[in-house]
Amino acid sequence: MHFVSGRSIFLFALVCVLFFAGGFSAGVVVSGSLVLPEPLPSIFTSSLDAEPAGVNFAPVWRTWNVLNEKFVPASTTQELSDEKKIYGLISGLTGSFGDPYTVFFPPEESEIFQADISGSFEGVGMEIGIRDNALVVITPLKGSPAIRAGLLSGDKITKIDDVSADAMPVDKAVKLIRGPRGTVVRFTILRTDENEPRVIPVTRDVIEIPTIETKKQDGVFIISLYNFSAVSANLFRGALREFALSGTPKLILDLRGNPGGYLEAAVDMASWFLPAGKVVVSEEQGKNGKPILHRSRGYDVFTDELKMAILMDGGSASASEILAGALQEHGKAKLIGTRTFGKGSVQELVDITDKASLKVTIARWLTPNGRSISEHGLDPDIEIKRTEDDVKAGRDPQLDAAIKLLNQE
């Protein structure tokens, strides 16, 4: 069954869509495991595999034995179990790859990460990452304590409470930021174009991650998408149905501050605008892997009368960049705002034990024209900045510019 809007600019197919919630693939390590000294903690015995060929582990075991024999703790009450030593060894191995997105999660951190991807947790409500070897705010989430306190995308975090964030990995920062509702965490930040640091206290709260909002303004339909969760694709379909009934051919997709999420959601959303088979993004594997092309499913419900703009900023990352890059390069939308974050790598979540896990980078994202998202991010077709003063005053020059562009066209 099909229906056509009043101005005959949309052709909507009411189809049943299978949504995948598989942004991460969980599994068991079957190769590359460490051979551990006896006695082995029981939690590891079921996941051991043969020692990698050609690798000399003698320095590892010598270090293990020297530390066991010679190390004197600072306190007589300090105890370090074999399990903690093994977790430390794995963390060091993981860190040696120099990738901020490849992270080992011991049990406590693994539990925190699982809470993250479930969509509800206690904290300040912001995405953080590494840029130019510094810990930065990717984006504060809509309605969160972080955004109410005044933290902005791009803020460089130099301290969390009294702990220096210099060379701090993301997983450690998350552990320091997370905490019970009602408690306070203080961020010392450096803001672009400012010479002096500022301290911003944030009161933690229960964070419910928002997904989507719609409205019509000045003859333009606006969809604000805040993340690419397992339910985002279905909600986006509903928002497009609203758009179809709105009587306007002008659409703004607001991806500002959207840190990304599931790949499948981005591919599904792009499919509403692209013919079947068009490349949405390619996944560049390691040395021995062939590129994987993720293609449009071909819902392709819009005619050439569609006028579309996408709002983006430094908080637009990952799946946001995939969707925006595909629609830009296929000529479906103009990008307005500032350069995106540049999070263009693929992570897989692997179970190391029943309580510990490893998030490992397995590939890089490339736009349909072969641009590396990680190396540069996406540049807008029309660059418009939104300053801190604009935010405080309730002004939105980026949205104003997009509305003006679509109304002129």
From TrEMBL:
InterPro entries named in the record: ClpP/crotonase-like_dom_sf, PDZ, PDZ_6, PDZ_sf, Peptidase_S41A, Tail-specific_protease
Keyword tags: Hydrolase, Protease, Serine protease
Residue runs in coiled coils: none
GO molecular function, one term: serine-type peptidase activity
Start and end residues of each PDZ domain: 114-178
GO biological process: proteolysis; signal transduction
Tree of life domain: Bacteria
RNA-binding listed as a keyword: no
Gene3D superfamilies in the cross-refs: 2-enoyl-CoA Hydratase, Chain A, domain 1, 2.30.42.10, 3.30.750.44
Gene Ontology CC, one term: outer membrane-bounded periplasmic space
Signal sequence range: none
Family: Belongs to the peptidase S41A family.
Protein name, entry field: PDZ domain-containing protein
